[in-house]
Amino acid sequence: MFSRAHVPARHRLSIRIWQNFAAKQIRVFWDGMPFYVDEEAWNKMKRGRSKCQHFTPSEGRKKRHRSVPPAHVQTGSSASQRPTEETWGSLPHHVVLHIFQHLSLVDRARASSVCRRWNEVFHIPELWRRFEFELNQPATSYLRSTHPDLIQQIIKRHAQHLQYVSFKVDSCTESAEAACNILSQLVNCTIKTLGLISTARPSFMDVSQSHFVSALTVVFVNSKSLSSIKIDDTPVDDPSLKVLVANNSDTLKLLKMSSCPHVSPAGILCVADQCHGLRELALNYHLLSDELLLALSSEKHVHLEHLRIDVVSENPGQTQFHAIKKSSWDALIHHSPQVSIVMYFFLYEEEFEPFFCEETPVTHLYFGRAVSKDMLGRIGMNCPRLVELVVCANGLEPLDEELIRIAERCTSLTAIGLGECEVTCSGFMEFVKMCGGRLSQLSIMEEVLIPDNTYSIEQIHSEVSKHLGRIWFPDMMPTW
Amino acid sequence: ETRGGNTIESTVATMVVNSVHWFRKGLRLHDNPALQEALNGADTVRCVYILDPWFAGSANVGINRWRFLLESLEDLDTSLRKLNSRLFVVRGQPADVFPRLFKEWNVTRLTFEYDSEPYGKERDAAIIKMAQEYGVETLVRNTHTLYSPDRIIEMNNHSPPLTFKRFQAIVNRLELPRKPLPTITQEQMARCRTRILDNHDERYGVPSLEELGFKTFKGDSSHVWKGGETEALERLNKHLDRKAWVANFERPRINAQSLFASPTGLSPYLRFGCLSCRVFYYNLRDLYMKLRRHSSPPLSLFGQLLWREFFYTAATNNPNFDRMEGNPICVQIPWDHNPEALAKWAEGRTGFPWIDAIMTQLRQEGWIHHLARHAVACFLTRGDLWISWESGMKVFEELLLDADWSVNAGSWMWLSCSAFFQQFFHCYCPVGFGRRTDPSGDYIRRYIPKLKDYPNRYIYEPWNAPESVQKEANCIVGVDYPKPMINHAESSRLNIERMKQVYQQLSHYRGLSLLASVPTIQEEAEPPMSDDSYASSSTAGEARQSSIIILTGFTVQLSVFFALFLSVNQNVTTLPDLTKKSFTMPKKINA
Q1: ipTM of the predicted structure?
Q2: pTM for this model (two decimals)
Q3: Which segment of the chain is annotated as a signal peptide (chain A) (predicted)?
Q4: Residue B514 to residue A31, Cβ atoms within 8 A
Q5: What are residue B290's phi and psi, to 5 degrees?
């Protein structure tokens, strides 16, 4: 049944067999790629073909069209029943499936061309739960795309099996449009997770809003058990969120929608009000309101685990940011004491006014642009839950005092990264001494540290290593 | 009889030693062990440089680099003349030229400096084999680097160190580099005097830029960097004098002045080997010990030299070191393909004065400060434009005097966070970084004269200047100077996310990076992957891991399509050979 006609000459089972005794697994190489087989199943098969030590495809061609028994019959002792004909094709269904689950799509496809039985396994729904559509244009990306025929086949044969779906698109509008076209055909699906990912510039934003929204709502309406949706940088709007809520409020756990300009605070509030299982949310600061925090803290709501807030100014220097009341933050922390609150700032120095004037329960802070000394001072005063701090840039004055205050008051701080900043070596040592071994991530550019009378760069390396209890170096950049 | 005749001839030949020293890099007479070997007991010595004039015009090497090379050759020729010898610049390709030279000059010995780069190793192996066939003895000496890259690899369990720290740790265990040799003397040369033909200049003279097909204009060479060993040694003295005067061996902190070409800069001279790295090393070491009462110097003193060594070592056995595809140490990042944006960057038309000034300086002079390199490299790749580092590397290769294959590619991978385990949160701001370095904007005014009348406040962001200010400065943004090609805040936000996407898929990077370590519930919400990008992550080592992402895409899908197709048409008896199609690599970026 291992027909030569079906197997390109190069596809051979190699006799390299690796036995992993601990795992009771055997690794078999077929055409250079490893399969894992349960020891039990392997022994069964070996018994069956005791004559054949060399597991190249059998020379016999006679039984090529032998009918295949149903899978459940195969799992028993078929091997010992028909010792002369046992080949790879009679590996029990579940074993092949198990092997296939460890293979990539391309390897599965190649394996499926070995024989009809393997080809049947190829189509088992379990293997089609997850799919990543890649849509790229040759002009804008060096990555190739999912073949259009394959897309059609999946829509036709496996759409109902898809559960974890993602779309990766390049910076070209046509790619995003193609993704929308596929989305609008996913009618008979029970998708659980959906991700729309732009690998370069966000091209979903260039698709006409009506096209995008109608495609997205197809999935929202038909799937009814969505638990995770990543739609950052897309033109999703309030009405489509309403559709999402109407159909998936019981199952939604994760919603990532940073930089979706067509959503209003009311739109996201509707999600928070209805989806009580929501555990992770990512959005822009202009959608964050006291009402939203209170809605996420209502009794019916599960504990929130992760809240990510991007603070971006649309018109540099002209955006006025609202403040969030301390009582709203308090309510959130009271309800979800473990929540991580991650804030990414991409602001000009003068726009930081409304932030951190009062106690804020933020845990992770990332400053993508220059942030003032004053602001860092406030963080030391008002962010007692701070775990991670990344400062990409700062003015020319050393940040000694601010860092020392952060070390003193942010007692959970375990990670810090400093880019274009300045700290004196003494100030930095003071900071490290105060934090000690709890600093699991300490990433400081060499240029940041200003040698002074007490420490040179060389000494800093050994002193810091001493206090951290591990070898530490500042980050370096190549010099020519 | 004929046999006998040949034997007699070859016995005569073995008694005579006719050496050829082949200059490639290492364009100097000081500390040149291979050249010393050529002279050692020889009857004649010819110093050769092989240059292909047809290649010159078409190659991706800019006029400044050619000028530097030709000046270095002129300088060599001048120095050799003082020793009553000459430089032979031979036109052609090494593989074609040598058989001719071997016969014409009755060569018995060929010497050259070791080249550790994959392309060079391949070329040299062929030449050595050819020399053997002609009965020519070859002697090769390693002097372009302080240490032997192979030795370092051997000490690191037979793989090149992939972090600079690891590299330094190994260097620390090594003995000091070999001491440099003295320069060639007149007496040495006199012993193997070679007859110079009257038509030497005609046949073997150093060509001019015009001869290589470059158009030159009077005064177009601002000529900050004059090639040649003589200049290199003068600069070395100035370099050491300044160090001695400052008496501070810390890395100098960057200021506005550091951005301009310095008369003590050495990097192009190290690149072409006009200056021996060992001479530089020992001079620096001796000076340190003299000023610091014999305490032995820290490794950081040799930072600039060790970075070169690090990249040469990483590249020596990796022929794909200069590309992303098929490069086992390079993280596969889905860069954008955008020729228009690339051209704006390369030609200094981004609309960010800081970036444009740096690219202008690079084009005009062939050198930019290393932090300026970081600024433009970050802008092109992970910071703003999201364009492949390979494109940037090619531009540097054309323009940068000190761009060496290994160092250039390695630095670009480093700066784009494509290798060597970099934190990717350090993202240079194309406005703030320049302003911090040179608040007065003198650097911008020098290289972008159009902006010279802008007040300091707006010179790094002219688009924010009120119209009246723009008018008064005689430079309207959008008319006389381009508008910024990208919103930096927005693009850096997006790009940080893209980098996180890439890095979160690489299990061996997990926990390394600050930003990628923020947990999400996503992983729990999805079952373990059995799909393309994840399938082998559990079994694959570092090298295989990074190539996984390549295998997705069309080619993969094609065979899946066939599989699906097969299942629909059960009667199909023959299948196309899938293996061939499946493993076609995706096309190259600039195919």
Answers
A1: 0.77
A2: 0.82
A3: none
A4: no
A5: -70, -45
